[in-house]
Every structure is written in structure tokens, then in C-alpha cells.
Write a structure and sequence with these properties.
This protein folds into 2 domains: about 50 residues, no CATH class; about 90 residues, 2-Layer Sandwich (Alpha-Beta Plaits), CATH 3.30.70. It has 6 helices and 7 strands, in the order E-E-H-H-E-E-H-H-E-E-H-E-H. The protein has a 4-stranded antiparallel sheet with strand order 3-4-2-5. The longest helix is centred in the first third of the chain and has 10 residues.
Length: about 170
């Protein structure tokens, strides 16, 4: 079992990064022949990424929802992500071509992704009584105290070195 960090923690970085959400929606559960190969293709990709951090992959979290698998990935840059997706020597392009040949637009399996580029100081997160998770597993894992105690203060703290905008903490009376 993963080590639990008691208390509140957050992520810290002064570098830009990319958050990449990717998933599959199984539209026809009985078409195992269509959705299983799509689902199985992710394992070798993740293995290659975890084995080769020089590709720019930082971390990933994996979930199953009611319609299929979902991954949250953290990358050093969009260029690194795009290079992995398009490089014929990496294990993405082959399965992508197979998906288009086997499934295409037949509606049995849906695939999706969302990509977010994040500049330093433009994020905040908190994890209470959790193992290292998400962005804090991809970046520096630090206690959420002092200038990192609340969401507003974390954003203000993150922005302190980037801008002179003052963010005031509102405390309800």
C-alpha cells in the first residue's frame, strides 16, 4: 500500500507543464473484439513512458468509470507529448493506425483526449491524508502551510514570482 502523508499537501513547480486527459468509451460492450484491443494498447505505451522519463512524461493516474478507462497524464511539454504521439519508434502510432482500421467511425468504441498547457503559477491543488497523487506525484510534493494553506493563497504564492498582482485572502466573519 502507498505511503499516506498525514495532513495537507500540494504540488510545487516553477516550470510549465501539460495535463493530458485521455480515455476510451465503450459504446457497445458486446463488441469485445473492438474495445479490448484499444484498451490493451495503453499498457505498452505506459510501460515505455515510465521506463523512459527522457521522453518528457512525468506521471499518470488511471481510473475506470462506467463507460471505460480514463488516464490523467502529466508531461513536461506539449512538444514531448506530440513527439511521443507521432514518433513511429514509440508505441502510440501503430495502435492509433490499428484503431482507425478496426474501429474507425463504426461507433463501437469512442476515444477522447483533452490537453491543457499550464504555465508556472497558474495552478493550485491540495491533497489531504493522501499518498503522493496527481500533480504532487509529478512535481515537488510539499506541505500546504503558510502561503500554501488555502486555494487563494496557493495561487497567490505561485504567482508571487511571476507577477505583481496582489491577491487578498477573504476570511468570512
Amino acid at each position: 500500500m502507498a505511503k499516506i502523508f498525514n495532513g495537507r499537501f500540494t504540488a510545487k513547480t516553477s516550470e510549465p507543464f501539460v495535463v493530458f486527459l485521455i480515455g476510451m468509451r465503450i459504446n457497445k460492450w458486446w463488441r469485445f473484439d473492438k474495445w479490448f484491443p484499444v484498451s490493451a494498447a495503453m499498457g505498452p505505451m505506459l510501460q515505455a513512458l515510465f521506463t523512459h522519463p527522457e521522453k518528457g512524461f512525468l506521471h499518470s493516474e488511471f481510473f475506470w468509470n462506467l463507460s471505460g478507462p480514463v488516464l490523467i497524464q502529466y508531461w513536461r511539454s506539449f512538444e514531448d507529448l506530440e513527439n511521443f504521439a507521432r514518433n513511429p519508434s514509440d508505441p502510440h502510432l501503430g495502435p492509433w493506425k490499428k484503431f482507425n482500421q478496426a474501429v474507425g467511425a463504426d461507433g463501437s468504441v469512442g476515444i477522447w483526449h483533452e490537453t491543457f498547457t499550464v504555465n508556472p503559477g497558474q495552478f493550485e491543488c491540495v491533497y489531504g491524508n493522501m499518498p503522493r497523487f496527481g500533480l504532487a506525484a509529478a512535481m515537488e510534493h510539499v506541505q500546504a502551510v503558510g502561503r500554501r494553506e488555502t486555494a487563494r493563497l496557493r495561487l497567490s504564492s505561485n504567482n508571487a514570482s511571476e507577477t505583481s498582482i496582489e491577491v487578498k485572502e477573504h476570511v468570512p466573519s
